Amino acid sequence: MSWINVCSEANMPKGTGVAAWVAGRAVAIFNLGNDGLFALDNIDPASGVSLLARGLICEIDGELCVASPLYKQHYRLNTGRCIENDDLVAKPFDIKTEQGNVFVLAQS
Ligand code: FES
């Protein structure tokens, strides 16, 4: 496993997601400002489509979530677990910033 520099923090839009190519897979990265950075596999487990970065951000019972644009399931940003269906998980990735750059921990 290794940390991959995906972009500079200054170039990340706040309050929404972007997709980045990390070691051969699309990762959805969400910049929620003071609430932090989150990274999930961009593939929506319910549909198999690579689109979670395009989902709306919301809060459910105090947990930050992204709503899939396709079937609208909500995935917790910190764990990737689906609110509506315990069997669905969008794989979470470790993410950090260093000296103004955003890094995602690539997994094999
Ligand atoms: S996007 Fe409307 S409640 Fe989650």
Task: Write up what this structure looks like.
By secondary structure, this protein is mainly beta. It has a single domain (2-106), classed as Rieske [2Fe-2S] iron-sulphur domain (Rieske Iron-sulfur Protein, 3-layer Sandwich). It contains no helices and 10 strands. The chain has strands at 2-8, 16-22, 25-31, 37-41, 56-60, 63-67, 74-76, 92-93, 95-98, 101-106. A 4-stranded antiparallel beta sheet has the order 2-3-4-8, with no helix packed on it. A 3-stranded antiparallel beta sheet has the order 1-10-9, with no helix packed on it. Strands 5-6-7 form a 3-stranded antiparallel beta sheet, with no helix packed on it. A hairpin with a 6-residue loop joins strand 6 and strand 7 (74-76). The radius of gyration is 13 Å and the shape is globular. The N and C termini lie close together (7 Å). The mean pLDDT is 96. Residues 56, 58, 67, 74 line the site of FE2/S2 (inorganic) cluster. Residues 4-104 form the Rieske domain. One of its GO terms (biological process) is nitrate assimilation.
Distance between the termini: 7 Å
Q: What structural class do helix, strand and pairing data support? A: mainly beta
CATH topology value: Rieske Iron-sulfur Protein
CATH class: Mainly Beta
* Subunit arrangement of the protein: single chain
Major sheet: arrangement of strands: 2-3-4-8
Tell me the Rg in angstroms. Answer: 13 Å
Bound ions, cofactors and other small molecules, one mention each: FE2/S2 (inorganic) cluster
How many domains in all? 1
Number of helices: 0
> Approximately how much beta-strand content do the residues carry?
over 45%
Helix content: under 10%
CATH superfamily, by name, is: Rieske [2Fe-2S] iron-sulphur domain
Give the H and E element order: EEEEEEEEEE
